[in-house]
Amino acid sequence: MSVKYFTYKGVNFSPGSYSQEGLNFAENEFQVQDDDVYIVTYPKSGTNWMIEILSLIKKNGDPTWCNNVPIWLRSPWFETLEGQSQIKDVTPPRVLTSHLPFQIFAKSFFTSKAKIIYVMRNPKDILVSLFHFSKMLCLYKDPESSQEFLEDFLHGNVPYSSWFDHVKGWIQMKDNKNFFYITYEELQQDLRGNVVKICEFWGKELNEAQIDSVVNHASFTAMKDNKMSNYTLLPQDFMDTTKGSFMRKGIVGDWKNHFTVAQNEYFDKVYQEKMKDLNMSFFWEEM
Ligand code: PPS
User: Fold this and answer.
1) What's the pLDDT tens digit per position in 43-56?
2) What CATH number is given to the structural domain containing 132?
3) Which atom of ligand 1 is nearest to the CA of 132?
4) Number of structural domains, the chain?
5) Cβ-based neighbours of 208, under 8 Å, separated by 6 or more
6) What pTM, to 2 d.p., does this model score?
7) Do the domain assignments include residue 235?
8) Phi and psi, residue 173, nearest 5°
9) What are the pLDDT digits (tens) for 78-99?
């Protein structure tokens, strides 16, 4: 499908779900509440996995809410036009979602006591996930070839622009006590241990059985089988499930099945160049 992105303060958005006014509202007028928790991610980093985890924690491990209410209504994106109309129905403590980069995030957050959980993922796996997702979602440009998409991703010519800028922007918050960051890969390695850490960060006390329930109901299989979480309820002309599945593979390292040796070398070169001024290493680099 032919989609042309527009920019808001230099960041790409799709006209289908965003507008200049809506983004201006999200940045400058949206009122963050002190007991809000924000899931912030670059797209395809594990956003919905974290929504499911926090939905289950919010309900002390009881899956009834997750089994009956679509995931996007449980934790709307406050920068999308749909999300902005859905937020009024979210009961506190609100768990809200955003893919916004640091520099255009809701200003009122920075004077509040609200919390952010920032989820990151190996950008090579994000690229592969986004490539497949872009074929399904009417809001995103249909990729012509894997090589062209690689160039677009590395140069930030995709929705929400550059992964590098997103991570470098948000990671400045890493020492803030209201900011918790984690990777998709760490969630894969030890979901239970990280659910416990997330509960501590949020200030929620769950017993062992309740934590087990969070872990079981937030598994890839459970979410793939839950029509409230697997996005199959959306209309076909919005997300075309004949072209793929939102709950696609849910694994670490799928890039190895997609990248050529030359593409991998090129990606690594750009990655090293763009990340060299950031004095930290990421979990996926050590794997
Ligand atoms: S979006 O569209 O930006 O909100 O997408 P996002 O939710 O960030 O990322 C989608 C990818 O996350 C995978 N996913 C999971 N992996 C493991 N466990 C669970 N429970 C889970 N839920 C979602 C999903 O399959 C997408 O990754 P890929 O690699 O495409 O499979």
Assistant:
1) 999 999 999 999 99
2) 3.40.50.300
3) 30
4) 1
5) none
6) 0.98
7) yes
8) -85, 0
9) 999 999 999 999 999 999 999 9
